[in-house]
Amino acid sequence: MAKPADVGTKKLISLAPDNWVRWVTQIPDLVAGEILTSEFQWISRESDVLIRVTSPQHGEFLLLNELQLRYQSKMPRRMRAYGALAEEKYNLPTYPVLINILKTGNNEIPTSFTSNIAGLRAIQDYRVINMWEVDVNIAFEQPLPSLLPFVPILKGGENESTIREALQILRADEQLNQLETVLAFFATFVLESALIREIMRWDMTVLRESPWYQEILREGEARGEARGEARGELRGILSSIEINLELKFGDNGLQLMSQINQINDLERLKIILRNVVTANNIEELQQVL
Asked: Which of 114, 104, 46, 43 has its CA nearest to residue 71?
């Protein structure tokens, strides 16, 4: 079992920064420099990674990496804000990249923000990378160790043998073995929980160490507060259950919320949340309920 570690976005990108910046920009001669702080006067987000990069053709500029667990409609406006704030702080042009991790119901994800007020326009283009469209072989061939924890949700990476291969690479490298927590989390979306436990020695402790699992919990708490309902831990757990149901089972999963919302026992809701994450199908959840 992996030990608790810093497995956040900055850690992942810093494993092979040159390969990472070349992959996200498709600029072959790009060289990664300093990873800069993305804390701005009004905004500070852990999922942002800002890198100073240089290219013989384009000179020096900033590469803004925004990793989102799943796409949200407010992201175009945010990409405009992040890009402008980065340019203001470091006085360099910014190349923004939005990386969406889990597939959602959006048919088309925009690649720019535009607004027009009384004839005055604001335009911000940005690159979009959807992980579910990325060929899993890229993670092994380039190599891009930063992508190895995401193998289960990459295109062609959902089968057991490929996930085992990624796991072996992570475990064989002392610098990478702590990323097993992330791989275990994303494996829950494509493999049966019993198989995950078998090949990863995985349990709920490993899952809770994943930064993406923690992000789901934080999003659940934020969603509960935004609705103006009870702001305590109970509301946060309910919203986290709802998010997980939507991510794993779509509208069919959300239909269970009418029943779950009637439960007021915090410990029982925590058990339900764990079962939502590890369940293989809706029928298993119905038995728990």
From this structure: 104
